[in-house]
Every structure is written in structure tokens, then in C-alpha cells.
Design goal:
By secondary structure, the protein is mainly alpha-helical. It is built from 3 helices and no strands.
Length: 110
């Protein structure tokens, strides 16, 4: 059982480290993309959405149905919730960095 726990820890730690390093970059990029999105005229927004669905959408009807379901199911609520989660995640990441920098047990390993 100890071997399994060590194996999981050896796998999970790099994944979590990568997540904590990548998440601020992803959040920042999404915030910048949203700012650009809000400044674009609606015609260009429709053009970009159509291009994404056409070339990267896989099954066009599925992508379109998912977008319509999100719109009818509370896209505004989802946007607010994701914004709150983003802010909370940034706080957690910053506090984790502060905690990681402290050698609480005095063994020399941070």
C-alpha cells in the first residue's frame, strides 16, 4: 500500500505543480481574450465563432447544440461563477506560493 501511495504522490505532485504554474497564465490569457471579445463588433464575433466551429468544431451540430444549451441554461450565471472561481483560484495559488516559501519544520527543505 505504501508503494501505491508513493506512486500516486510521485505522479500527482508534478501535475499539481504544473497546474499551479499554468493556471495564472491561462486565466490571464482568457481575461485578455474576453476584453478583446467585448470590444469587437458583433459581426466579427459571429465570424470568429463560425470559423472556430467550421474548422475546429468537430461535429458542427454538436458544437452548435452545446452553445445553444449553454445560452439557454444560464450562460450569464456560468460566466459570473467562473469569474468568482478564477478570483478564488488566484488567491489560493498566491497563498500556496507564500506557504511553500516558508520552512515551517526547520529541516532546510522548503
Amino acid at each position: 500500500m505504501v508503494d501505491a501511495a508513493e506512486l500516486v504522490q510521485n505522479f500527482a505532485r508534478p501535475v499539481l505543480d504544473f497546474t499551479f504554474e499554468a493556471m495564472p497564465v491561462i486565466i490571464s490569457a482568457c481575461q485578455k481574450a474576453y476584453k478583446v471579445y467585448t470590444r469587437l463588433p458583433l459581426v466579427y464575433v459571429h465570424l470568429l465563432i463560425g470559423a472556430v466551429m467550421c474548422f475546429f468544431g468537430g461535429f458542427y451540430p454538436t458544437v452548435f447544440a452545446a452553445l445553444q444549451a449553454a445560452e439557454h441554461g444560464g450562460l450569464i450565471t456560468l460566466r459570473k461563477a467562473l469569474g468568482a472561481l478564477t478570483e478564488e483560484m488566484m488567491v489560493i495559488i498566491e497563498e500556496n506560493k507564500k506557504e511553500d516559501a516558508v520552512d515551517a519544520d526547520g529541516d532546510g527543505a522548503v
